[in-house]
Amino acid sequence: MNRLKKAIELTLPVCLGYVPLGAAFGVLLSEAGYGVLWSLLSAASIYAGSMQFVMVALLTSNSSLVSCALLTFLVQSRHMFYGLSLINRYRKFPLFKRLYLIFSLTDETYSLMTSLKESDDDQDDQFVLLISFLNQTYWVTGCVLGGLLGNFIPFDTTGIDFVMTALFVTIVVDQYRNSKQHFPFWTGLMCGLICLAVLGADQFLLAALIFTVVILVLKQDERISV
């Protein structure tokens, strides 16, 4: 019970972001002609906030499967880099649990995982699983609520997607304050700004992630060699 209480307290900020944003997705999907069952299935099986919003546009435009696959890869490719820093943490889990942790990894879940302090409680396997499961539960709840209410409540979703951006920034600021190592933060920030200026808003993310990972790997190798 203490483990569950602690996990709920830790994931509460994510809940406050996931439920309203998930509801916005459910409303959009309902307006596109897909009922609450589709909201539930997409939240449970796709579970990719930004990609689910894109999915609505793909469904309404009758896009091909190839286009859907390529766009999904580009939008979600950042998770490949997230996974690199969690290999050691997830390696100890049995295969089924490890596959679920990989599937349920989101931007916000990643931030929480990397913010866990080095203590017995935070390293507990069940605690790590609870974080991922609770976050997905919040998202599924929001999507279902939106799907149920979408046909009855007029709702302007303009700008609602900024909720998750604000939440992610808040988590990053909290990590910055609690961490003594700020080099990764400034590396990511500078790579992002430079790639944004050179490549533009539509193309900068993947390049920024690649440059950030390369720099951090080189920095780690330099530290080991010294």
Report what the structure shows.
- This protein has 226 residues and is mainly alpha-helical.
- It folds into 2 domains: 2-179, no CATH class; 180-226.
- Helices cover 79% and strands 0% of the residues.
- It has 13 helices and no strands.
- The chain has helices at residues 2-31, 36-45, 49-60, 65-76, 78-84, 87-91, 95-103, 107-115, 120-123, 125-149, 162-178, 183-199, 204-225.
- α1 crosses α2.
- The chain starts with a helix and ends with a helix.
Total separate domains:
2
Structural class: mainly alpha
Q: Can you give the helix content as a percent range?
A: over 70%
Elements, N to C (H/E):
HHHHHHHHHHHHH
Tally of contiguous helical segments: 13
Q: Give the assembly state of these chains.
A: single chain
- Runs in which pLDDT lies below 50 for 5 or more consecutive residues are none
Task: Count the beta strands.
Answer: 0
* Largest sheet data: none
Q: How much β-strand is present in the residues? A: under 5%
Q: Compute the separation of the termini in Å.
A: 45 Å
Output the radius of gyration: 19 Å
Kindly state the mean pLDDT as a whole number?
A: 80
Report the principal-axis shape. globular
